[in-house]
Amino acid sequence: MALRRALLPAAVLACVAAALAAGASAQPQGQQAQVPLPNKPNTLHFAVIGDNGTGDKPQYEVGEQMLQWYSRFQFPFVVMMGDNIYGSDRPQDFVKKFETPYKGLIDKGVKFYASLGNHDSREQRYYKLYNMDGKLYYSFKAPKEDVRFFALESTYMDQDQLAWIENELKNSGEKWKIVYFHHPLYSSAGTHGSQLKLRAVLEPLFIKYDVSLVLNGHDHTYERIKPQNGILYFVEGSGGQLRKGDLRRNSPLTAFGNDTDRTFVLMEIDGDTLTWNTITGGGALIDSGTFPRRKQ
Amino acid sequence: MLRTLALTAALAALAAHPGAAQKTAGTNTKAATLKDFLARVDTYVALHKKAESTLPTLPKQTDPKQIDTHERALSKLIQAQRAGAKQGDLFTPAMQALVRTLLAPVFRGRDGAQIRAEILDNEYKGAVKLVVNGRYPDDVPISTVPPQVLSELPKLPEDLEYRFVRDNLILFDPHAHIIPDFVPHAF
After folding, report:
1. Which residue is closest to B142 within chain A, CA to CA?
2. For a 10 Å CB count at each end of chain A, is N or C smaller?
3. Please, what is the angle between helix B18-53 and helix B2-16, to 10°?
């Protein structure tokens, strides 16, 4: 477990420090935020999950927790970092590993925008509730604020996809460019870690075309990376899976990390400012902060 | 007369530079092998498309049952059409050798170690038996194929992908979820 420079209230930090000193989880037990984020009425709200499709109890607990937080912070959509359905993906698997754990959100009209991970069948692109419109990579404009999301298929970064993302980023007029995909360009986890060959081809485009935020999964941890070349990176790969103790301690990349809890992230964009709250499956707020968008 | 002179000059040049002749012959052999491979791939894709044309069109946004039905129906049709398919039908022995030659420099050195690590990155530890024309095993994660590897291999039509299962390079038909052929020990 690594934990650094968490942008939390002092009382929460004290609790975290005490927990760490005791060799326990970084989760500040019992810390339940009453009012998450700024939570303004006309800003963009969304949620982030990754590596969630196990169909096991912890995934359901995260789904239930997301629904509880939805009642306080209404997010119209969720972006998915891949590994949406582990193992077989027969129709009954979609029910068990997606539709049931998030039923409350789906019933409220929350949309899910998926990217595909290495455990996902390519044919998930046709599943209507993933809103991929038959495409392995795609972009969509957020319903509020000046934001565009770009979902990539990181297991197969061929020349066609690279040309596509460059063209999309170049021609995107939105102030906020948010890219998400499965494999992390930066990660301090021991199991997978940073995908250096992918970073070599994608990061120059993100820098050149003013991407502000990159969201990934794959490693079954939560990690907020120290901004790299002005870009904020998150690994959110513990929406159902969890690999306890996998984060390398003292990694120079980590701004905040958690490898003891399942998590999801709530995000809000208000003008030029991103705010996030990271919540565990038990409902504790473990990380929060703000970040300015990169200026074109 | 002119043709005879040109041929004589060419033969004289080859006699003076035997290495150049070997290089030319090697280039021609490589080009012929690639051309043959892509022709075989085209034949497979034509068979795939013909089989798919007999099925109801899959909407771009549909339910899991329809996706599953379509995928399995398509795989059955292709498997029936290629009932006698065997390893080497698409990746001929010459193409298998060429694939290993093309990939060898990619997997050398420090960069090669990173690429190898990213390909072998998945957490699946069980045994995998690759079966030509068989279904890609549901429990085996799909490997990443780094862009540096893809750039060395001939470009495939969009109905096919290269993937790795351990050190084996497979052709993967994602719509039918089957393995049309593979190269054992590609790196």
Report:
1. A118
2. C
3. 110
Gap between the Cα atoms of B98 and B104, Å rounded: 10
Rounded to whole angstroms, the Cα distance separating A267 from A66 reads 12
| Domain A10-22+36-291 top-level CATH class | alpha beta
From chain A residues 262-291, the ones with a CB under 8 A of any chain B CB are none
Residue A182 and residue A81: Cα distance in Å, rounded? 5
> Does an H or E element contain A222, and which?
strand A222-228
Q: What is the pLDDT of residue B121?
A: 73
In a domain, B19, yes or no: no
Domain ranges within chain A, ordered by starting residue: 10-22+36-291
**Which residues does residue B33 pair with via DSSP β-bridges, in sequence order?**
none
Q: CB A87 to CB B60 under 8 A? A: no
Classify residue B17: in a domain, yes or no: no
Nearest residue on chain B to A156, alpha-carbon basis? B145
Q: pLDDT tens, B121-159?
A: 766 778 889 999 999 998 888 999 999 999 999 999 988
Residues 167-206 of A with CB under 8 A from B: 183, 191-192, 195-198, 200-201
Q: Is residue B15 part of a domain?
A: no
Distance CA B83, CA A120 (A): 27
Closest partner residue to B61 (CB to CB) among A118, A119, A128 is: A128
Query: What distances in angstroms separate CA A173 from CA A143, A235, B88, one per listed residue?
Result: 15, 26, 49
> Would you state the structure tokens that stand for residue A1, as one six-digit string?
């477990």
What pTM value is reported for the model? 0.88
3-state secondary structure of B155: coil
Q: Which two tokens stand for residue B72?
A: 């399995």
The contacts of residue A143 (CB under 8 Å, 6+ apart) are A44, A76, A77
Q: Which residue of A has its CA nearest to B143?
A: A118
Interface ipTM? 0.85
Dihedral angle at the C-alpha atoms of A280, A55, B76, A153, nearest 10 degrees? 0
| Domain around B106 | 24-183
Q: Is B178 on the interface with A (CB under 8 A)?
A: no
Report the number of distinct structural domains present in chain B. Answer: 1
Q: Positive or negative, the Cα torsion across B117, B120, B126, B127?
A: negative
Q: Is the minimum CB–CB distance between B170 and chain A shorter than 8 Å?
A: no
Answer whether residue B114 is part of any domain. Answer: yes
